[in-house]
Target: Molecular chaperone HtpG
Amino acid sequence: MQEKGNISIHTENIFPIIKKFLYSDHEIFLRELVSNAVDASQKLKRLSAIGEYAGELGELKVKVSFDKDARTITISDSGIGMTADEVKKYINQIAFSGATEFVEKYKDKGDEKAIIGHFGLGFYSAFMVAERVDIITKSFQDGAQAVKWTCDGSTEFEISEATRERRGTDIILYVADDSLEFLENFRLKQILDKYCKFLPIEIEFEDAIINNPTPIWAKSPADLTDEDYLKFYEELYPMSEKPLFWIHLNVDYPFNLTGILYFPKVKNELQLQREKIQLFSRQVFITDEVKDVVPEFLMLLHGVIDSPDIPLNVSRSFLQADSNVKKINNYITRKVAEKLNDLFKNDRAGFEEKFENIGLFVKYGMISDEKFYDKAKDFCLLQSTSGKYYTLNEYAEFAQENQKDKNDDVVYLYATDLLGQDGYIQSATKRGYDVLKLDAVLDSHFINMLETKLVKTNLKRVDADTVEKLIDKGIALEAVLSDSEKETVKKVFDEVINDKNKSVQVEAMPVDELPAIVTQNEFMRRMSDMSKLGGGMGMFGAMPNNYTIAVNANHPLINKILKTEEESEQKRLAKQVYDLALLSQNLLTGADLTAFIQRTAQGL
Model:
């Protein structure tokens, strides 16, 4: 048996679906209905512009009001209105979009991007909060009769003649028992502020206009001043510091996009800055979760992005799969790189002043985006502990001169704590070496990335070993102590330290070096640093810190310890040397620090 037919959709099942599943958040109903009212006003403006409506436009604002006693919310406009036939066509046929039909009809006569609606389901979001909805509407057409449509959420409706003096539409919601929260002034104002703050038609609520219908991202950059951009930033983020600079986005091919991205003064953190970019579609707020629209590393920026190519009711899966979203993502990456490169080329001194605040963006981008790395490598800066800035190429040339080891590899020394590692920095600079300042939150990952990109180059933290080992020139210093004397010194320090996580090595170092230095293997240091930021390195963060105590066999104080015959005095001196080494790395704290100060007061 073979049979063909049409699948039947029973409309009595549609309202429970709308109420529960059409939108995840019931507050969206107000955004949808206000957007529809704005559309009705925009359509009339379009018809007037192309000569198909000769009447006075008058005041086209949308008014939102509520009556707590009557349990109603009303959205009114003075837009295009509807005839009885249009009500039957657009309201009774669920998912038939009047906006889509209008755009198609007039697509060659104006800017279709101004029309917000697409899917025709927006009106029915009213039933998420209402037990009954009335529509009173009058078409702009000459001689049109006002009509009233009413529905109680079932599949039945009534349509009749009505009285309305002027063209336009009133949507009246009779709020259901489970949605009485929406009959509060503050709740409606909260929703309007969130979703309708920049709609292109004035929105009136409680006798006040609550929106800015001409946000600066919809204007030409040539018509704007720095003051305009700063004022708008303050409007978006009232309690924030002034931004460093901004990028005005404006593209209409191969996709449509406008917006402004601000570079804020970023603290040394990643999480607290997120969710500051707002995504709009035709000036209607969609979301501030823009992970798939904006590259991950640029989510630290602030601002707005508006694209009519992204629908209002957007899902995460849509963003991940949509080709336009991918194009937007790539475009934003390119524009940010171009802006930073221009700033660097046109005002290097100013760029260097800002780099402490924008370095996090740059490094994050280089780590996470190969295309951005290719552009950013020319303006990413490395800062020496002396304060001087270098580009990657400049520093490579600089280090080539003096910081090659015996294998002809270039070694970049770096510090993560300028105060705590000051002794190590001084030891390196005393030997004529430069030390980079890499103390930002992402620098442990940035260091790893650099080593994968730079040829025959290693990065070593300045306190990871003695300077002679960090940049091993193949020149072995001679120790004044014999092997047996080294063993004796090692034994004394082992007994004094008595810590299985600290090993003692007695080795030849310059006489002017400290009597003992605490070091930690570069690999373990780096894994420990990365574990603090996350990224699958938790096992290293949980492991105990292992240190090496490098005792300077050529220091006079070590010789003094060796020649001291009384064992207790020998250990006292060794303890002083060990504490001094810990103090130089900020590892001596609390009671141990107090005891050290007291012993030092007695003199070595």
